[in-house]
Amino acid sequence: MRACYSTWSGTYYDEYYGQKAPYPPVHRELLKRVLAEAGARTVLDAGCGPASFLRDLAETGTDRYGFDVTPEMVAEARLVLQAQGVPEDHVWEGSVLSPESFRPPGKGRDFRFDAAICVGVFPHIPPEADLKVIRHLRDAVKTGGLVVIEARNQLFSLFTLNRISYEFFMKDLVQVEALRAQAGEEADGVERALDQIRRHFRLDLPPVRKGKEGEPGYDEVLSRSHNPLVLREQFAAAGLTDVTLLFYHYHCLPPMVEAHIPELFRKQSLTMEDPEDWRGYFMASAFLLAGTRA
User: How many other β-carbons are positioned within 10 Å of the β-carbon of residue 163?
Assistant: First the structure.
């Protein structure tokens, strides 16, 4: 993971938040709204990258903290935030898998934040660690404090009709091995049925994203999507209440046809941006999940 992001620190913000971003960072304003509504004055960004989000809280007067697992990202975040008057020790190296990483250097064990956010990190967390990280975020905030995570929407694959869709069908929906085990004399028929299903998907899309300078690319390291229904249950299991699901990055059509109408595709997709629209379950590629520590 460190190798994937090590050469990205200087360009990551421009590529995903700046003018070079393929899609406007609509989640930035959505996340700022959620924090403002909660009245959060101290915020921890777990996996802050090059202060991708924290730098845009400068005008809010929020006391900002963050950590990241990649040293180059930490160095860039410190550089950016120090120019805004944030102390160097407000950014440190750490992992979301470690509870110690959620405490700022020099602060006591009882120190807690008003809000803890985690953006762009959950795709890289092993499935068995999801609940653990949610609990770490919960423990980092005060009673009544806010926890917000961002994740890629697994249910979006039902709309994309590509390689990701096929993998979701076969791994999560269809019990392939159970079918094969019970097939008996219809074993050949099962294989023909599975082959017919396979031919309905564009397995060559999306292309695998490679690294820039020999390091592994985003799709060559662990980069999962999450079922928002399951993640919401995990929030409840961690003792978080008032859980809110907010969708973003809508697609008016499956991404594979965007090239036919690039301007209209972008325009119509942006008009769909409603975090509470039920179509977000299938037509939005990402979501925020927010909950309160009871």
Answer: 17
